[in-house]
Amino acid sequence: MGINLGLRTLFGKHHGIEFFTRLGVVGASATTEGIGKMTTTQTYSVAVRYTYNF
Question: Are 25 and 3 contacting, i.e. CB atoms less than 8 angstroms apart?
């Protein structure tokens, strides 16, 4: 479970840029069984995205 926050700006008629983040309220995790045991967690992510609107 997490919280999504973002900001989008449009320029020209068709172009845009988005800045967004996801803050984990309850940490996501993944566990792999096999030769060794590996556990990863991700509590947040930050990204930038270009969009084209048509």
Answer: yes
Does 20 score more than 80 pLDDT?
yes
Beta strands in the chain (DSSP E): 2-11, 15-32, 38-52
CA distance 53 to 16: 8
Residue 31 to residues 23, 24, 38, 44: CA-CA distances in angstroms?
21, 18, 6, 18
Q: What is the dihedral of CA 40, 42, 43, 46, to 10 degrees?
A: 160
- pTM for the structure as a whole: 0.55
Instruction: Tell me what pLDDT residue 44 has.
Output: 80
* Per-residue CA distances from 48 to 9, 20, 32 (Å): 11, 6, 30
